[in-house]
Design goal:
Two copies of one chain form a homodimer. Chain A has about 180 residues and is mainly alpha-helical. Chain A contains eight helices and two strands. In chain A, helix 1 packs across helix 4 and helix 2 packs across helix 3. The structure holds a DNA duplex (30 and 30 nucleotides).
DNA sequence: ATGATCAATGCAATTTATTGCATAATAAAA
DNA sequence: TTTTATTATGCAATAAATTGCATTGATCAT
């Protein structure tokens, strides 16, 4: 279970609300960690109960109140100790591949449609990731050095999406042939 | 939820026991679907209750009894209908990337060790996938045509692992620098 | 004016997945 | 000879994730 640690990692950079975290999960972090809002809010509650984060309520005009969470010393301790242990290899469960694997029970149009729908999504993602990369590459060497590790995770997204697209194009050709 | 459908897809090819399925999930299908034995056995029970699969018990000498499951007409129906709908894009939750993202709280040796451990696993997987591909490429054109769709999923595994390795090597260099 | 989207959070119920424990026989390896 | 791996299955408890429903006030578009 590392939703907990994904949240702690984000809060270690800066205090945020559940909604802020949600946006981070949906945008920048989305290519390596996904979570729904309910999951985040529940987890924040648990983390606060365990004393790993602190909560303060901010009132806002015209908008609902905001609960801002901040990592505690104990939270940093938990995170550091988690980092010192090895993580499990990523579990892959890809329904699209299940569908292709059993695709002889349906028609090629259906499979091609599905592939092309996903293709669009992946193309969009890749464009976004490359835009983030362009920003990073314009930073000074010092700033680049500072954000080296997040950049490495961004590269994973880019190389991963490129490979996905290569595969999809190759597959579409193969199915059409 | 497509563990259900992953199982139906496998049973549509040939009747199998839970243990047989487990081996398929751990070997060939492992690069796109993972499940533990408890999950498979429970799901088989539910599928049988729903009449999507049938069960017959085979006695064996020297080994425990084997329950062989076979897909029913109703099961093929369910599978076909699932195939006609679109599937959700794959959800990625990769703890290794979370660790790297927050890696400034630990030391580079730790990160490099972790990356190299994963590297070994991915290398092994890639070798296995390539071996399967070699076998496929020796088939006659007719047989290749027949297994085209599973081959496409295999290609996903190969391209995915290659991209993973490229990324890891690049990342290791970047961290060492 | 009416519906849609964004900001912000939450409860409750259900579904899925994981962990821990348990059995039992055979064969192969240390 | 003792331990480990393989074959084969399962229950029970817990943990994690998903789905459905709900609120409120602002702004933005039709």
């Amino acid at each position: 279970m590392s939703l907990k640690h994904a949240i702690l990692v984000l809060l270690e950079t800066e205090p945020s609300s559940g909604y802020d975290l949600l946006k981070q999960f949906n945008n920048s972090l989305g290519y390596f960690w996904n979570a729904k809002h309910q999951q985040i809010y529940q987890q924040l509650k648990l983390l606060a109960l365990d004393g790993l984060i602190d909560c303060t309520t901010e009132e806002q005009q015209g908008k609902p109140d905001k609960k801002v969470y901040k990592i505690t010393k104990s939270g940093v301790g938990e995170l550091t100790s988690w980092l010192s242990n090895s993580v499990k290899p990523n579990k892959i469960n890809d329904a699209l591949l299940v569908k292709l694997y059993g695709g002889h029970l349906t028609n090629n149009e259906n499979l091609l449609k599905e592939l092309e729908d996903h293709l669009l999504l992946h193309k969009t993602t890749l464009i976004q990731l490359r835009q983030i990369e362009q920003k990073y590459l314009k930073f000074s060497p010092e700033v680049q050095e500072k954000y080296k590790l997040p950049y490495i995770t961004l590269r994973r997204g880019i190389l991963g999406e490129e490979a996905w697209l290569d595969w999809a194009l190759e597959s579409i050709k193969m199915i059409k042939k």
